[in-house]
Amino acid sequence: MAFWARHTLLPSDRFFLVALLALVTVCGLLPSVDEAWFPVTTLVVPLFVGGLVLRMASLLLLYAATAGVLVALERVHGTGVVRPGAVVVVALVAFMVVFVARKRTRLGLQGTRGETMLFDLRDRLRAHGLVPELPPQWHTDVVLRPAGGQAFSGDFVVATRGRRGGRTLEIALVDVSGKGLDAGTRALLLSGAFGGLIGSLAPHGFLPAANDYLLRQGWDEGFATAVHVAIDLETGEYELISAGHPPGAHWVAASGIWEVREAEGPLLGVIPGSTYEGVSGVLGPGDALLLFTDGMVEVPGQDISVGIDRLLGEADKLVADDFADGARRIADSASGNVADDRAVVLIRRHGTR
What we know:
This protein folds into two domains: 2-111; 122-349, Phosphatase 2c, domain 1 (4-Layer Sandwich). It is 44% helix and 20% strand.
């Protein structure tokens, strides 16, 4: 066994394995001292720790040592110490631990590094959605709400202020097919790619390039919807371009109404060589532009226009406060599909005419 361990185990495992083998030995001696305080099930402690820090070969060796300790206890003390129920508990814990360890070993990870990587990926996805610093008269609120309170969302935002000397703000709100972790992993890949495209191309070139990129992935559920807006921060002129996405809404302070701005275009990742036409407008002082995903307005059995009217009705209530904290408040008040990821982007231009 020493030869096998020397030639099979990785150096990083040997320290942990020796320490856990010693712990298994100690746990095997403790029931002899005081069975009331140290039952045989104490052996699950080194098994659980081993599942976190050992690779599969090392873990199997730990299991063999644990089984040997149980046999030794049985022979020395008899069934008074090693009861069938205790053996079943140890065996069940060992089975669950090896199931988790197999997945971790496939990824080549040790300990809780897998969870750490997921947190890092989630933070990176959120970082891609940070809107660059804007002039004092402009403000942007972004809220992303994953379905079911999960950490990952299929909705994401990319933004830049790189064209024309920082005069143009570009924001894209993307909704990847699916929801939760499955959609979140695809959203992470796409957010990095789309973050590199936005601002590097003319506004009309962003969605066609995003469509071509998505088609090259060859995913079974590879489609996405997106809305892209480019705003001149000096004049307030904007162009909104959509790829199968719900329309945007423009609050016109002069008339006190919401104007639904709907641009037509096919989904991303479905039709090669797709073209996208936009709609234009001007955000004057006091105006706002609202973007959202279908999870905010789609309700099973209802037309989407009903959900949009309801959403804009809630947004109307925020006008008196100049839409302060508007994206969060709109997301909280919406009655869309709570089983779907939801996102809201609110762009405001302060001031008076």
